[in-house]
Design a protein that fits this description.
NAD(P)-bd_dom_sf; Rossmann fold; Gfo/Idh/MocA family oxidoreductase; alpha/beta; Gfo/Idh/MocA_Oxidoreductases; Dihydrodipicolinate Reductase, domain 2; Gfo/Idh/MocA-like_OxRdtase_N; 16 strands
Length: 345
């Protein structure tokens, strides 16, 4: 499988590494920053360009979109129109309206389109699907996402925004919370209504880069779910006491299902853990499938999907549902639009 990548920033490194580790061909990397494009290409032995159009004019089995969030729609739409199968990093776009347009474009062209919610691919997460089906009528849920952020980072972010107020930046809710919203929708079903939401900001970062986010959701199945996300300087908390405190908890009449996810860039050291309390058995089950690199698993499954196999990769419709929920929660918090990384009240 030949893969070309648009974007040569931090996340592109993980994609390039996985492509090469699986023995696929990394053909071409494009980034408007010449130094970034050349550095990534030199490291992984491929060609580079500063022209996205040039990359899209070249044949490939897959184009990976790894540009900043605000540019996902433009690049992904151009890749689909050029006839490519696409893997787009999450979130699919920064506007539910743009996501809706992308859904229609993918339907019209019929091109394969995958979105990088790769946490759902881990075998332990797939086991959680079984656990969550055994809790009976769901009554409540919790989505918790806390990631360690040094205090010194916030003045730097605020200074960057002051110097470049148009910078396409996002905060904790989009960058860290979107993965878990995808899992929530997958295992608990659609959201009926956002009951309440609040965002908190560090000085100088409002309204673009949120530091904390809370939301209360009414699910179509009747349950109430609390969502809480934060970037805080707490480095000794969480299941592994490394600052990564991330879980989904679904509570029903017959049981409690819990999924502890892991630091995404440490697949060789950490594995998710799924747990179930089964009230009928008065017993607890636990499952840990071991170390699996989610990025590599993503490309393994894409190769299968391009051959016609059914795989659990996130579809364009599923990614649209996440983007719609993100917009609805921002709106409930008084932030009324999220278009191309620009936030307005």
């Amino acid at each position: 499988m030949k893969v070309n990548i648009v974007g040569a920033g931090n996340i592109a490194e993980y994609h390039a590494r996985s492509i090469k580790a699986l023995g696929h061909e990394l053909g071409l990397v494009a980034d408007f920053n010449e130094k970034s494009a050349q550095a990534l290409a030199d490291k992984y032995g491929c060609r580079w360009t500063t022209s996205t159009d040039s990359l899209l004019s070249e044949q490939a089995d897959l184009v990976t979109v790894a540009v900043p969030n605000a540019y996902h729609y433009d690049v992904a739409a151009a890749a689909v129109k050029a006839g490519h199968a696409v893997l787009c990093e999450k979130p699919m776009t920064r506007s539910s309206e743009n996501s809706r347009q992308l859904v229609e474009l993918v339907k019209q062209t019929g091109r394969p389109f995958f979105v990088g919610y790769m946490k759902r691919l881990h075998p332990t997460v797939q086991k959680f699907a079984d656990y969550s089906s055994r809790i009976g009528q769901m009554r409540s849920g919790l989505v918790r996402v806390y990631h360690p952020m040094p205090d010194a980072s916030w003045p730097m972010i605020a200074n960057h925004l002051a110097l470049s107020p148009g910078s396409p930046m996002d905060g904790v809710f989009v960058n860290s919370g979107s993965h878990m919203l995808d899992l929530l929708l997958q295992f608990a079903g659609p959201v009926k209504k956002v009951l309440a939401a609040r965002m908190q900001y560090h000085d100088g970062c409002y309204p673009k880069v949120d530091k904390m986010a809370h939301a209360l959701l009414e699910m179509e199945n009747g349950a109430t779910v609390t969502v809480e996300c934060g970037w805080l300087s707490l480095f000794g908390v969480g299941r592994r006491e490394n600052g990564w405190d991330e879980l989904i908890e679904l509570r029903g009449d017959e049981g409690l299902a819990t999924l502890h996810t892991t630091w995404w860039e440490r697949p060789q050291f950490e594995s998710p853990v799924a747990e179930l309390w089964d009230e009928s058995l008065k017993a607890k089950e636990s499952f840990n499938a071991g170390m699996v690199d989610n990025f590599q698993e993503e490309y393994r499954l894409i190769e299968k999907a391009l051959s016609g196999e059914s795989v659990p990769l996130a579809t364009v419709e599923e990614a649209f549902a996440v983007d719609q929920l993100i917009d609805d929660i921002f709106a409930a918090a008084g932030i009324h639009s999220q278009k191309e990384g620009v936030v307005t009240q």
